[in-house]
Amino acid sequence: MSLRELYQEMLLDHSRHPRNFGVLPYANHLQHGHNPLCGDKITVFCLEENGVIKDVHFEGVGCAISVASASLMTEAIKGKTIPDFDTLFNAFHTLVTEGKEIGDVGKLAVLAGVSEFPVRVKCATLCWHTAKAALMNNPNTVHTE
Ligand code: ZN
């Protein structure tokens, strides 16, 4: 199995069996996101204590890329501080827009192929923009346009 095939398998697995899916009742940050280009809709729930993301969940409907990306994001940012979240946000954005790995992106690397499909970049980044808005208590629903 090539690395590319392995990444495809991991993406499929996360889209079919998303991790941390469902309402987080004790969340203290919440935001909705909408990508009208594709129809992806997501809600991100975060429990943040003293600047640390203690728990994070999401729910919503969307394409395989948007669901897999949100699933991978929840695994990647749980336990991270807000500055570490920002660093990973920037690294992920570079990964899916330019296909380049800056810093340690861990399992998020499986989404590098998205950079070859510019129309899918918004599917992959919707959850990240929504999580950022939630953590910053931005009161406005995130729109990717
Ligand atoms: Zn999508």
Topology at a glance:
Blueprint: H1 3-16, E1 29-35, E2 40-49, E3 52-61, H2 64-77, H3 82-98, H4 118-135, E4 142-143
Helix pairs in contact: 1-2, 2-4, 3-4
Bound molecules: zinc ion (ZN).
Structure characteristics:
binds zinc ion; alpha+beta; 4-stranded mixed sheet; single chain; 4 strands; 145 residues
Q: Helicity range of the residues?
A: 40-55%
Bound molecules: zinc ion
Structural class: alpha+beta
The termini sit apart by 37 Å
Uncertain parts: none
Number-wise, the strands total 4
* Tertiary shape: globular
Assembly type of the shown chains? single chain
**Major beta sheet, specifics?**
4 strands, mixed
Strand order across the largest sheet: 3-2-1-4
Any idea what the radius of gyration is? 14 Å
What is the overall number of helices? 4
Percentage of β-strand residues: 15-25%
Arithmetic mean pLDDT: 95
Q: How do the helices and strands follow one another from N- to C-terminus?
A: HEEEHHHE
Overview of this protein structure:
The chain is of the alpha+beta class and 145 residues long. It is 43% helix and 20% strand. It has helices at 3-16, 64-77, 82-98, 118-135; strands at 29-35, 40-49, 52-61, 142-143. Strands 3-2-1-4 form a four-stranded mixed beta sheet, with helices on one face. Strand 1 and strand 2 (40-49) form a beta hairpin. Helix 1 crosses helix 2. Zinc ion binds next to helix 2.
